[in-house]
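Dear colleagues,

I hope this message finds you well. In preparation for our joint manuscript, I am sending the Ribulose bisphosphate carboxylase/oxygenase activase, chloroplastic (Miscanthus lutarioriparius) sequence together with its predicted structure, so that both groups work from identical material. I would be grateful if you could confirm receipt.
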Amino acid sequence: MGVEPVIMSAGELESEKAGEPGRLIRDRYRTASQVIQNQGKMSCLMINDLDAGVGRFGNTQMTVNNQIAVGTLMNLADNPNRVSIGQKWRESDVTHRVPIIVTGNDFSTLYAPLIRDGRMEKFYWQPTREDIISIVHGMYRKDGLSVEEVARVVDAFPNQVGEEIGGHEQLSVKLLKRKKGEELPTFIPPKADIKIDPWSSIGLRKFQPTKPT
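The corresponding structure tokens are as follows:
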């Protein structure tokens, strides 16, 4: 697409210094603006997993930095051409407007005015059957399974998440309970077989997550 993104993560939205994350957001925003001005390329500020950085979960408390980060993002959305990082205000200091793209899993944990219509445009991605087949086939490509064979597994368990299809069983137990000096477990890839027993598949379907309505 020819876009030169400036990327942040949720881990940068907290600091031992009050106000540091807000300043960092403004600094990265101005950096993206300078890319547009100096290189003639389209740029954007991308923040991954925003809800993990400034969202509210259960009884977790909101810090001053969380509030400042949210306030900074709201100000950038409302006034994108005047962005200061602490220097003296100048009439000619105009910042190019930069798109801000954020990703997340649960935006309902964010401050409501930040995500209201007009300030944030939201796009929801739900993988289609073809997307799921492509993902699972990528996991088992080295095992020699064809797309048609993978499609049979996906259709047999339509509501199953990908990590349940390709996850290693008890991997954390094998690694965390390993004694000092003991060799790491050797992974012996099993022979891939997609034969589905109709009776066992009926039993497994009882444990499938219900499809959301």
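For the figure legend, we might mention the following. The CA atoms of residues 157 and 205 lie 7 Å apart. The chain has a mean pLDDT of 81.

With kind regards,
E.M.
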